[in-house]
Design brief:
Elements (H helix, E strand, L loop, with lengths): L3 E6 L6 H14 L4 E5 L6 H5 L8 E2 L6 E5 L2 H17 L4 H10 L3 H16 L6 E5 L3 H9 L5 H8 L4 E2 L2 E2 H19 L4 E7 L3 H16 L5 E8 L8 H20 L3 E6 L8 H12 L5
Parallel strand pairs: 1-5, 1-8, 2-4, 2-5, 8-9, 9-10
Antiparallel strand pairs: 3-4, 6-7
Helix pairs in contact: 1-11, 3-4, 3-5, 5-8, 7-8
């Protein structure tokens, strides 16, 4: 079975981590080996499962076939720089290596280092599914656009010192080829799906639609939306819930008129989605509506 990828994205606070975690548990309980990766520095993935999340894939206690991992930008940068500089230390004096290291201290290097770890998670053929709980949408889009913005920078640097702010031209060119292959996989609807999580409110929907259009511009067209936090039908008779539902239904209709992909609704739960028992409950609800 070819590894499949699910990317959960959306505005901060809409429930990406809860729903990506529930999806991961659902798939693992089907017997599918699943890796859940967070690229969001504000993620509470460890709190959801009541266990620590590290840079290496860690088994989730109580769930066979499920592993979790965190992509940390600071540690990713350290590993990336060390890998790039290690062969140079044997060839050049310390002052030259320090000069190169200074060039690699800009924000572009951190972005590429994070993308490097991101790509590593995509090259895991031992998993049936790799699920990404991503940072708020704008950061994710920037990450996915990176390989396409390198070419001119590489060509200019190759005519000069042979060094870029993100490493040597030769090594970077090889990396870019690998990254381009990964982006091709992201564009393949047979193996990759983008799942937008939104609340039925104006700001979240506007961000979701902008992101959907940006991904389409990048050739990533397999998309679906989960409208999270919908007032359950059995609660709508209550006066407050009825007023909330009146507003929500208007925004749900707006999503249906604008978004061309699949749309599913998830209810507003009375309790926080924390702990394995609650995650499994949400996973069972998702299993009825999520076509994965």
């Amino acid at each position: 079975m070819m590894t499949k990828f699910l990317f959960f994205s959306g505005k901060g606070g809409v429930g990406k981590t809860s729903l990506s975690s529930a999806t991961a548990v659902m798939l693992a309980n089907r017997g599918l080996k699943t890796l859940l990766v967070t690229t969001d520095p504000a993620s509470n993935l460890g709190d959801v499962f009541h266990q620590s999340v590290g840079l290496l894939a860690t088994p989730v206690a109580g769930v066979d076939n499920l592993f979790i991992q965190e992509i940390d930008s600071v540690e990713s940068l350290r590993l990336y720089k060390e890998r790039a500089l290690a062969p140079l230390r044997e060839l050049f004096p310390d002052d030259v290596v320090r000069s190169i290291e200074e060039k690699m201290s800009g924000p572009c290097t951190e972005e590429i280092a994070t993308f490097d770890q991101f790509i590593d998670c995509m090259h895991r053929p031992e998993y049936d599914y790799v699920i990404f709980d991503t940072a708020p949408t704008g950061h994710t889009l920037r990450l996915l656009e990176l390989p396409g913005s390198w070419s001119a920078h590489i060509e200019m640097s190759a005519e000069g010192t042979g060094q870029t702010c993100i490493g040597g031209v030769e090594a970077l060119t090889a990396s870019k080829e690998q990254y381009d292959q990964a982006v091709q996989a992201l564009r393949d609807g047979e193996c990759t799906q983008f799942v937008f999580v939104t609340r039925p409110d104006r700001i979240a929907i506007e961000e979701m639609m902008r992101s959907s259009q940006e991904l389409q511009r990048l050739g990533m067209n397999k998309q679906m939306t989960i409208v999270n936090g919908v007032i359950p039908e059995e609660d709508r008779a209550h006066p407050y819930a009825a007023r909330r539902w009146t507003v929500q239904s208007k925004y749900i209709a707006q999503i249906q008129s604008m978004f061309t992909g699949r749309i599913v609704e998830m209810p507003l739960y009375p309790d926080d989605v924390i702990g394995l028992g609650k995650i499994e409950e949400v996973g069972r609800d998702l299993d009825h509506v999520l076509a994965v």
